[in-house]
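URGENT: need a sanity check before tomorrow's submission.

F., can you look over the HAD-superfamily hydrolase, subfamily IA, variant 3 record below? I want to be sure the sequence and structure line up before it goes out.
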Amino acid sequence: MHGRCALALFDLDGVLVDSRDAMEEAWEAVQRDLGVTVPFAAYFREIGRPFGDIMERLGLEDQAEEIERVYRATALRTAPRVPAFPGVEAALARLAIAGVKLGVVTSKARPQTYWTLAQFDVPFETVQTPEDRHPGKPSPWPLLIAASEARTDVDDAVFIGDMDVDCDAARHAGMRFMHAAWGYGSRPAGVDQLRSADEISDLARLGTR
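Structure tokens as predicted:
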């Protein structure tokens, strides 16, 4: 290990904000308006990937465009009221005060992402969404581009996520990964864990290698 964490990158859903109810509301709109019978639980297991990839994995690629239109319309309406997990905003503020750069790497659409992030009174050095014309997670590209935009070496960055796809993206990027225990997914074997949102601020004292 060397140095301290210079850049903390976060997944959004399940790490910074608790958006499960909003996602379920959007999926219910898809079921109601388009007659889709795939249960929300099946959709929810795939979150973290780009929306088009999820549709393929669920066998819904033929309806993907219509599904995305209905889903995004509902999700955009609910985005401003998606709550942060308790303790997250204060922990982010402590990180920023300590001089750690902050960023977000998410598979959520850009408009929803910015509406959701508006509740945080901290500066985000980089925000990566699927519209940025590079492969989404588990590809390493969103993390590598985020580090480049933040002018930080990958060795001095940490990605905090809650799903296997987050861990895979970090591994492919050669970036340290930490699992958010309060999120939606189980901790991958052998991965370090943040047990509560309050521990986010401890990243300021973390060596990255």
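My own read: The chain has eight helices and six strands. The domain at 20-80 is CATH 1.10.150 (DNA polymerase; domain 1). If you see anything odd, call me.
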